[in-house]
UniProtKB/TrEMBL annotation:
It comes from the Bacteria. Gene3D superfamilies: FAD/NAD(P)-binding domain (3.50.50.60). The keyword Oxidoreductase applies. It comes from Nocardiopsis exhalans. This is 2-polyprenyl-6-methoxyphenol hydroxylase. Keywords: Monooxygenase, Oxidoreductase. InterPro entries: FAD-dep_Monooxygenase_BioMet (IPR050493), FAD/NAD-bd_sf (IPR036188). The keyword Oxidoreductase applies.
Amino acid sequence: MNGRALVVGGGIAGLAVARGLVRGGWEVDVRERLDGPPDIGGALAVWPGAMRAFDRLGLGERLRERAEYRSDAALLRPDGRKLVGVGGRAGGHLISRSALLDILVDGLPDGLVRWNTPVTAAELVPGGGFDVVIGADGIHSLVRRTVFPHASPPRALGSVAYRGTLPGRVEGVTEIWGGRRIFGVTPLDAHTTNWYAAIDQRLLTAAEHVARDPGIHARVLRREFGGWGGQADRILAGLEAHGVDRRELLDLPSFGPYVRWRHALIGDAAHAMAPNLGRGACESVVDAAVLADALNEEPTVARALTRYDRARRGPTRRIVAASRFLNRISTTGLNR
């Protein structure tokens, strides 16, 4: 089957499903409110299931060429003592978000992605002349709010995340846990270190909780992670020079099927999750591959959407729950 598809959102999920549908002969219109690929930086882990999805989309080899493969990681205490070490044959690829978006955009037909072109709610119901409408527009999805009115809004996880990059090579993947705080370090590329941190929001003052000044973020990080040693000290010393991204962490409660009428939700629009398992982008790409395969292979849109929902709703809801639980253990006090 093929037809006309509207994809709302030009991030990882939207671009991935667009590629899959174009390969199947669909006419695809991607609308993105931003004026270019959204890039909030940092490294993404691509686990084996997501790599298989990239292979189905015809992008696996290109991703492997630009990514760094890692099969070892360590969970540490702030004093450097190892709690858990992981190694062996099971591993994943690390790639920068900007490099992944470049791979997804490259090769799409000119004009298929319309940047700086937001969609209105009126265009979504009943479907605006499209055979299928795909909501890939993130945790605050307009498609979900418009077409799935009983869906619960995002919920706060009670923790705040910080992240950034720093010049300099790092070889290992480490994460440090201590007293409602985590600090992680991974490679980004051959010349850059990726770092992230999360803390219980109750550790912040009221002013710090609403601050937008990177200098205040740096001060919080030094207060909470100073003296943790190793890579943490090097990163804390360079915060002002290289910037800090800060955001409150949210996830999405379960709300029933990911499909309704001729509409489908994928990625964070369907199952936004805590970042602790590193699965958000991975599950978005798997969604995209599964939905594209269903729409390319089934005789009707209704059958394709039913197949997609049956395949993806259960597994993703379990990962949302597991990610939320791990977030609670690591940053909101249950590990004490």
